[in-house]
Amino acid sequence: MKITKDLYQGSLALLTDFYQLTMAYAYWKSGKAEQEAVFNLFFRKHPFQGGFTVAAGLDYVIDYCKNFKFNKEDIDYLAAMKGKDGQPVFAKGFLDYLSEMRFSCDIDAVEEGTVVFPNTPLVRVKGPLIQCQLLETPLLNIINFQSLIATKAARINLAALGEPVLEFGLRRAQGIDGGLAASRAAYIGGCSSTSNVMAGKLFGIPVSGTHAHSWIMSFETELEAFEAYAEAFPDQSVFLVDTYDTVNGIKNAIKVGKALRSKGKEMLGIRIDSGDLAYFSNVAREMLDEAGFPDAKIVASNDLDEHIISSLKGQEASINVWGVGTKLVTAFDQPALGGVYKLSAIRIEDGTFVPKVKISQQSMKINIPGIHNVKRYYSKGKAVADMIYLEDQEINPKAALIIDPNDPTRRKRLMPYFYQEETLLKEIFRRGELQYAPPSIEAIRERVQVQLGAFDKAHKRLVNPHIYPVGLEENLHNLRMNLVLQAKQTEDEDQPEK
């Protein structure tokens, strides 16, 4: 994938928040720019009140990091910035440093298509403090959005019970970038094709589409429109039947379908885009079957999402293919995933890493300190629990304890010795050099299905899903609690006596 080159023709280093650059400058001035640090990207709550999230966007992260640099135009722009005193915001020495800087971090990440849960790191960045900081905004931008859309797509496809879901939301997407990323993530999440032709070209996604109401309206009659379309596309005719009267539209589609059949061709189906989809799909199915078209598909669209599809399934609608646009590519009812990027460790002068914790009155906002990873345990192919653990600590193979990071009363005893395990964070970059061979988009899409298949149906329910157990290994829990208590004690000691 060469998304940055194709779309932007150059550097994306300035695709960041200004405060990342002011911090970078302050790190440089204070001599901390090259101090090694570890940051984790994670989220605190599943989107859509769901029970799982699908990780996506790693391909974009790889592409961004491979091309990370400040070019001459970037440096010239930063050099022209003036502060309130009329002087340059950034010193020339700092700008020279940026112009020579090249990406040199280690990155570990969960593979795209992995089902993930709150508080577990999706991406871990280790390297010079200044580089780690500058990566925060672009990595969050990439991972947050694509994971959100991939999750929405997975939910919609679960609701469709294996029937094809066509993504055609480009016209309602959040700009060109959002449209492309959404089409990619939707395909990863399980959609069978996209209407977005550029996404098809860039990512190798199958494209699909038929015609709109304007095609019908441009002819004197609906029948003429169907006949002309069948003449143009005799092997892939799907007729939109609700421009005027849906039942008459179905009758006209059948007439043209019979004419196609007399020429050795076959009508693929019809599409209904308005009205009572359950009722009209059942009417259409009966009419098509009676006319000798039992294999003709009935495609439904009209602001569908997982909840409407689930409702239509419950009404026994005769719909075979689902066209989903706006509510998929805009992640309707949840505009953002809410992923965050937090410092978890920093290397001091003696060469050791010191764990770092941010405290808060809200337990869910207390980050997880140290250099940690995630293990997923399986029993007979089914996921049992995820453990977040310190990489430099041994795990008890016979009696490991995991503790919910937000509620320490929720605990689960595991016996790792009896389970199959998977370490979720994989090596992506080492010292700025790519170590990972990104899989094809088809392989990523397949991984989503395999991953979802490993979880109980209760975790995938659209409403009130069962909570999958994810916890801190006992040593990590104790480290976190001790650091929080130390920080609170220091805070109390700093308060003036009353």
TrEMBL record:
Record note on modification: Transiently phosphorylated on a His residue during the reaction cycle. Phosphorylation strongly increases the affinity for substrates and increases the rate of nicotinate D-ribonucleotide production. Dephosphorylation regenerates the low-affinity form of the enzyme, leading to product release.
Pathway assignment: Cofactor biosynthesis; NAD(+) biosynthesis; nicotinate D-ribonucleotide from nicotinate: step 1/1
SUPFAM superfamilies recorded: Nicotinate/Quinolinate PRTase C-terminal domain-like, Nicotinate/Quinolinate PRTase N-terminal domain-like
Reactions accelerated catalytically: 5-phospho-alpha-D-ribose 1-diphosphate + nicotinate + ATP + H2O = nicotinate beta-D-ribonucleotide + ADP + phosphate + diphosphate
Keyword line: Glycosyltransferase, Ligase, Phosphoprotein, Pyridine nucleotide biosynthesis, Transferase
Protein name (Swiss-Prot/TrEMBL): Nicotinate phosphoribosyltransferase
Superkingdom per UniProt: Bacteria
EC supergroup of this enzyme: ligase
Pfam families: NAPRTase, NAPRTase_C, NAPRTase_N
Keyword Nucleus: no
Organism: Algoriphagus halophytocola
Positions of the Nicotinate phosphoribosyltransferase N-terminal domain: 14-144
Family statement: Belongs to the NAPRTase family.
Keyword Electron transport: no
Ranges of residues in domain Nicotinate/nicotinamide phosphoribosyltransferase: 187-365
Molecular function via GO: glycosyltransferase activity; nicotinate phosphoribosyltransferase activity
Alphabetical list of NCBIfam families matching this protein: NAPRTase_put, PRK09243.1-2, PRK12484.1
Entry EC number(s): 6.3.4.21
Domain Nicotinate phosphoribosyltransferase C-terminal span(s) in chain numbering: 373-479
Main function: Catalyzes the first step in the biosynthesis of NAD from nicotinic acid, the ATP-dependent synthesis of beta-nicotinate D-ribonucleotide from nicotinate and 5-phospho-D-ribose 1-phosphate.
